[in-house]
Amino acid sequence: MSAQIAISAIIPAYNEKESIAEVITEAQKFVDEVIVVDDGSTDGTGVIARGLGAWVVTNEHRKGYAGAIKTGFEKARGDILVTLDADGENHPGDIPRLLKPILEGKADLVLGRRGRIPRSSERFINWLTNFKLKLADSGTGFRALKRELALKLDLKGKCTCGIFVLEANHYGARIAEEPIALQPILKRRKRAWSHFWQIFYVLRWLVKPPTTGDGLN
Q1: Among 40, 25, 34, residue whose Cα is nearest residue 83
Q2: Where are the domains of the chain?
Q3: What are residue 109's phi and psi, to 5 degrees?
């Protein structure tokens, strides 16, 4: 990586021992540090990650996905932070694609745009988000953003769907999207019942006025 720009990868993980090793070893090819936020795993996920040289931050009590992401933001030392899933669905080889618009000074946040949003509830949240921001995939978990922006985000919600981009927009962030490829995973996708409550967090951000003086420089 560049001597001037440091890159941190943040991987929130809960019981991902089957996939975490490959995600870490692939991500290490493109970043300066890998932080695994072990959100109360009981299957040895953290032990595996630590053995591969990742910086493991352990939450004794589960904070959920958004809480784990925020913990990673607080610990990361990089100038640009990348978030990706621990289940192997995101291919770390796409990290340079997400970094490019930021390194070129064209964006503050870059979203990894999936070809299809898998859950209907997530598609509905994306539809809501588009009343303020025209984005194809506002709920992706694969992102790159400037550390300055990351530290401003509260991420108070049941997950990050919708609120991540709306909050970033509130602070004046320039948001771009880059296409990514998804890899098949063995883990069965659960119903995201939390998306029902997430809608109310999204609606709050939709009606919130723009910031006045606390945005990005």
Answers
A1: 34
A2: 7-119+137-151+173-186
A3: -140, 130
